[in-house]
Amino acid sequence: MKTQILYIAKKTAKTLVAVLAMASGLYAQGSSTQQSLILRVMELNKLGLIGGSLKLTIDKLYADQFAPAPVVNANTTLLWTSNGENKKITVASNNNNPRYALRVAPQEMSPGAGVAAPEVSFSDNKNHDFIVGVNRSAGKCVIQFTAAADVAKGIGSDTHVITFTITSS
Amino acid sequence: MMQKKISLLESLRLLGYIHLLFNHHFFWPNPGLYTLRKLRTFFLASLVLGGAAKGQTYGSDFHRVTVQVSQVTVVQVSSGTVNLSISGANAVAGQNSMTTTDLSTSFLWGTNVSLRKVTVRTSLATPIFTLKLLAVNPTAGTAASEVTLTTTAQDFLINLGKTSGSCQLQYTGIALASLGTGSDAHTITFTVTVQ
Q1: B9-39 pLDDT tens trace
Q2: What is d(CA A40, CA B84) in angstroms, rounded to the nearest whole number?
Q3: Domain A45-168, classified CATH 2.60.40, yes or no
Q4: φ, ψ for residue B71 (rounded to 5)?
Q5: How close is the nearest chain A Cα to the Cα of B64, in Å?
Q6: Chain A positions in Cβ-Cβ contact with residue B76 (cut-off 8 Å)
Q7: In this predicted structure, what is the pLDDT of residue B60?
């Protein structure tokens, strides 16, 4: 009887060892594998314009004032994306001594994408705030240009290259 | 090479001579008779067996060889690390969403078992950004739909059965401008399981 029990115990132990060996063998064969992946997002700031060159022509007078009437153009759109914080968009003209007045202001701003700065009148080639308070946002606005002339300035033309820049506040 | 065979008739004749020789009363009672009889038996047997065996197989034996193939499933990625980066080049002005795609690594597998699939999951429970994965151009099996990686295993490749093959790993990282900057570190686990 004792011999039989010993025999059964030995058999069971052998079976267990075999099962464990098989299981470990399957694991070692690699039915799963891993890969490390790091996704990094850098700070990025993008600006874009929709609409090409503009031509503003002043060719009307206020009938009662004998003064040229201003011309408004709102045919271009400014777009921006920034995942940074405390950014602003500035505007500048390369014409530091224009003969005629040219003003610009953002209109129809995307909600929550920034705050419109006061209208800018170009009289130098410095940067002026156009949109402030840009924080982790994407948005767009209509760029409204207004050109005006005094009769004393006579006729002629000004050329501006307008540059929009996104920068830190 | 020609070999002369002893015919059955010759064998019987020789057997008779030897039998007469060893059983003749001339040898009896000789003490060496027993030994002689043993020699006779050996001699006769050698003649008979030798004659019959000439020109045939001299010996043979066998052993049994068993080849056992267990379930084998092996998977591997071509590189242990992937770096995805979203920078200015991945952004479009006016769009909140920014994406980047990586196809630099591959997934390879081999399995001798039918009805298997590969699932995928990430270790990162709360990523800042979205990470998607798609099996591109699998040489066997069927690519599952692009999955957004979570800690729950999702199908990556299906209908794998007794095949080996590979596919490209197409990772797509998606960040929103509103989420700002940062990084997510994932450990992606691919597992072969029963379909």
Answers
A1: 454 455 555 554 555 444 444 545 455 555 5
A2: 6
A3: yes
A4: -65, 125
A5: 22
A6: 30, 33
A7: 85
> Are A46 and B93 in contact, with CB atoms under 8 Å apart?
yes
Please tell me the distance in Å from B141's CA to the nearest CA on chain A.
16
Instruction: For residue A47, give the nearest of B158, B93, B153 by alpha carbon.
Output: B93
> B142-159 burial, b for 16+ CB within 10 Å, e for fewer?
ebbeebebeeebebbbbb
Backbone CA torsion sign across B137, B143, B146, B147:
negative
- Give the best residue of A40, A137, A143 to mutate against chain B (max B CB count within 10 A): A40
Q: Which residues contact B19 (CB under 8 A, 6 or more apart)?
A: B40
ipTM comes to: 0.72
A70 and chain B: CB distance < 8 Å anywhere? no
| Helix, strand, or coil (residue B140) | coil
Q: How far apart are the C-alpha atoms of B74 and B118, rounded to whole Å?
A: 11
Whether this prediction's pTM lies above 0.90 is answered by: no
Pairing of strands A32-41, B182-194: antiparallel
Q: What is the DSSP secondary-structure string of A90-112?
A: EEEES-SS-SSEEEEEEESPPTT
- Each residue's pLDDT, cut to its tens digit, for chain A (169 residues) gives 555 555 555 555 454 434 333 443 333 344 999 999 999 999 999 999 999 899 999 988 776 777 788 999 999 999 999 999 999 999 999 999 999 999 999 999 999 999 999 999 999 889 999 999 999 999 999 999 999 998 888 899 999 999 999 999 8
Could you tell me the CA-to-CA distances from B27 to A6, A102, B15, B21, B33 in Å, in that order? 63, 151, 18, 9, 7
